[in-house]
Amino acid sequence: MTLGKKLKGNGLWESSRMMLPEHKSRIIRDERETLRTIKPILDEQKLEEIECTLALSLRAHVRVTVVLFDPFERKLLSGFVTSIHTHSREFKLQWAEEWKWVNVDDILEVYIV
């Protein structure tokens, strides 16, 4: 079967042989971005584990690393929990001379360093 006969059946634009590399890479990138923008839903056990680890850091002054949700990259913060606001579900993470308020709902994972 010749290429001309193949193209007649599927049409010029449906043939995989005619796809430009730029188009293929754009399609793949768009699919990845669509999948990455969805935040995973954590179960109750994982949420409780996160909250307990944050409370332990506050009480025992141990360093924790927090993995935050970001649609495009993996964000890591490491420091000590110095304050927890349960009503707003935020905690203050401090390292060196810097600090940041972090929302508990943005956390994917937290572990002790």
UniProtKB/TrEMBL annotation:
Pfam families: YolD
Designated name of the protein: YolD-like family protein
Organism: Paenibacillus borealis
